[in-house]
User: Which sequence fits this backbone?
């Protein structure tokens, strides 16, 4: 699903509005009170719902409400830029443009303490450029900057970088810099007791910057949550459904986050025995069709890419959800459910 299909005229927001959902934009939330099921904004306005779901990111309020520890710098930075299609032909190694093979491929180059990967991200053939580097700047406040601020050509001056990559750096747009942080895993995604408060997305499972699976996990969360709430008949079910969501998602997200952390550390190895072992393994696996450069075992791709939100949700529902309804004598209530959802989305258009 592309961005247009998601947010276009027939996308999710449009369908929600047609169904009577109220969407508030540019609301700066200052406090969340799970027990009273209220959210308060910077102007003092208070919003109340039968359940509050925080999808406000790794540094949002939702994670803090559940006792998430402050993050610590991980030791590397991540740069994001664009190489426009008209300039891609000037770089010999990627002059082929937006053919089908290129559109589906991610190209990766490693160096001494750095990694470059890029892919075609639209039908015009524009390429997203991502650069990982070691980062000794461990000062505070180095998260996403307000806009593009760094020319890639000024980086890695003390490192060996192939000439064609230097040429690529000269042609890209100015890059956005992000210092990566490590986040402690949350013990729970749900408030204690029967308090109807849940965190989802990166608020629940914080990925390293530039992770390949972070967006996929967000859609999985939404799919599982939507499927569970399709069984909602009474407000008394809500706490159990939230715990069901946690049961379904926690191990899955933990596994994928750990995989992405291993991938990132492998990308930025300095010269040495570990780097040599990685390169030897890659050379060996490149001779095998379908190998994924040693990022995981042969069994792991099936677990990673065959995950089915509907199946996981239905398995839990038939095993535990229906049983809970029976034992708690839950019957259908005619009242309308009110759901409060806090979401923080930041976008940046590169021109």
Assistant:
């Amino acid at each position: 699903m592309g961005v247009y299909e998601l947010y276009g005229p027939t996308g999710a927001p449009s369908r929600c509005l047609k169904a009577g959902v109220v969407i508030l934009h540019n609301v700066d939330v200052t406090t969340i009170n799970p027990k009273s099921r209220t959210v308060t904004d910077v102007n003092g306005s208070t919003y109340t719902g039968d359940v509050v779901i925080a999808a406000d990111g790794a540094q949002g309020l939702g994670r803090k409400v559940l006792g998430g520890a402050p993050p610590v710098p991980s030791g590397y930075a991540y740069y994001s830029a664009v190489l426009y299609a008209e300039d891609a032909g000037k770089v010999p190694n990627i002059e082929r443009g937006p053919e089908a093979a290129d559109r589906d491929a991610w190209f990766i180059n490693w160096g001494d303490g750095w990694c470059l990967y890029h892919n075609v991200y639209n039908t015009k053939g524009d390429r997203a450029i991502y650069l990982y580097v070691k980062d000794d700047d461990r000062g505070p406040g180095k998260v996403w900057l307000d806009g593009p601020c760094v020319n890639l050509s000024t980086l890695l001056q003390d490192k060996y970088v192939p000439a064609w990559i230097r040429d690529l750096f000269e042609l890209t747009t100015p890059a956005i810099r992000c210092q990566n942080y490590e986040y402690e895993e949350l013990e729970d995604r749900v408030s204690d007791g029967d308090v109807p408060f849940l965190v989802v997305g990166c608020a629940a499972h914080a990925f390293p910057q530039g992770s390949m699976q972070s967006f996929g996990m967000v859609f999985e969360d939404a799919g599982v949550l939507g499927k569970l709430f399709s069984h909602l008949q009474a407000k008394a079910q809500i706490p159990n459904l939230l715990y069901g969501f946690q049961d379904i998602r926690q191990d899955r997200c933990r596994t994928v986050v750990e995989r992405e952390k291993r991938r990132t550390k492998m990308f930025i190895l300095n010269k040495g025995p570990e780097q040599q072992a990685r390169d030897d393994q890659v050379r060996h696996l490149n001779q095998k069709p379908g190998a994924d450069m040693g990022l995981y075992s042969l069994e792991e791709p099936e677990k990673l890419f065959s995950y089915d939100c509907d199946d996981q949700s239905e398995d839990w529902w038939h095993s535990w959800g229906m049983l809970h309804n029976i034992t708690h004598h839950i019957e259908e209530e005619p009242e309308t459910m009110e759901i409060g959802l806090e979401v923080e989305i930041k976008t940046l258009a590169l021109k």
Observations:
- The first strand starts at residue 29 and ends at 33.
- The chain has a mean pLDDT of 81.
- The chain is about 35% helix and 20% strand.
- The longest helix spans residues 238-267.
